[in-house]
Amino acid sequence: MLRECACALAAIAMSGCSLILDFSGSTEPDVDAAFTQAECDFKEPNDTRDTAIALAVTDVGPAAICPKMSVDDHDFYRITLPTSSSVSFKITYFFSSNSDLDLQLTNMAGDVLSSSRGFDNDEIIVCPGASPPCTGPLAPGDYILEVLPGQPGMANRYDISIGVVP
């Protein structure tokens, strides 16, 4: 068997063909790599509902849910709708088994309006929408968008996008 393989490789080499195997790495970013300070600090302090920072349509990140010593990092953003509007919220990240992120939308009273808890490279909430369910359009006022770890201890970088149609 070894002799047959050697003969086949010799024939390939003589025909001018070559085979190069590169196992040096991936083109995707390493989700376990350290996060930059700028990613961890995006719109900080915003680790609680009370410290939620206003987020504009032009604020896209990059941001990160960063590892912390004692508690999980959560990012809270305040969204203000001046008129009744249909909205979409999306975070995009590189999913792995230890870096899942979720997305949740609440009103100012803390009532959950919708949450996206998938296992993919993004989380999306659309109001009005069916999956995940969200009644709408949303009335004028303030809302809280929360980016949180899918499980305790998870962390990841993400980009965020917002769409608003009055």
Q: What is the molecular shape?
A: globular
Q: In the CATH scheme, what's the topology name?
A: Jelly Rolls
User: Count the strands?
Assistant: 11
CATH architecture call = Sandwich
User: Which class best fits the helix and strand makeup?
Assistant: mainly beta
Beta-strand share of residues: 35-45%
Task: State the gist of this model.
The protein is mostly beta strands. Helices cover 11% and strands 36% of the residues.
Provide the descriptors you would attach to this structure in a database record.
mainly beta, five-stranded mixed β-sheet, 36% strand, disordered N terminus, four-stranded antiparallel β-sheet, Jelly Rolls
Characterise this structure.
It is a single chain. The protein has 166 residues and is mainly beta. The chain has one domain: Jelly Rolls, CATH 2.60.120.380. Helices cover 11% and strands 36% of the residues. The strands form three sheets. The protein has a five-stranded mixed sheet, with no helix packed on it. Strands 2-11-4-7 form a four-stranded antiparallel sheet. Strands 8-9 form a two-stranded antiparallel ribbon.
How are the SSEs placed, and which strands pair?
Elements: H1 2-14, H2 37-41, E1 53-54, E2 63-65, E3 75-81, E4 86-92, E5 101-107, E6 112-116, E7 122-127, E8 129-130, E9 133-134, E10 141-149, E11 156-165
Parallel strand pairs: 1-3
Antiparallel strand pairs: 2-11, 3-10, 4-7, 4-11, 5-6, 5-10, 8-9
